[in-house]
Amino acid sequence: MPALGSIHAIARAVCTFQDRACPAGACPPCLERALRAVRAMREAGMFQAASDFDAWELAESSHRGQQDKAGRPYMAHVGRVNEGVSDLLAGLLGRATHDQFQSIMQAATLHDVVEDSAVTLDDLLLRGFSDDVLDMVRLLTKPPGDTRTYAQRIEDLIASGNLGAILVKLADVEDNGDPARLALLPEDQRGIGERYRRARARLHEAATALGWRDPREQAESAA
Question: Which domain of life is it from (predicted)?
Fold first, then answer.
């Protein structure tokens, strides 16, 4: 993939080419032109598609030094969410393509990168991640200044109808609500488990309504 720097650098080049003195060096129209140019380059095969390793490498660098609420390295949570999503995707075998599986796994790896670091969705575009990955990460990201409750954010995610993002969030809340993990929290924070239980039930119900079947339940019924 070409070393293009940031999308703002491309936008500044567009502004300069048009002999425009834009605020902060890159005005919204030039940013939009830059994004269109990057998408066109990607569609023309000038960008190499990002790999699962690229996603992991970016997540690792973005979360370096970060800890979860229990004080453990944040990447351990990312790894568990990845494993959880991989298990959940067995419920889509025969109904999703390899590319769709890969996009969901990459979104799982990157699910907190935009919210918890300086990485932006435009940066993900520049790094070769697909529009499907960007859409899922956007849906999984709490915007700055967001005043919605946790339950409202879950309902909005469900309303999107994006099954991949719903499954990533399901794996996320299953890990966050794991009793062993909750036991590591300070006693006054352990009540958060009820929030995760309610979210899990809603996400599981929504994913099932979209055609997903929980492979864990299928395995239990076959036993």
Answer: Bacteria
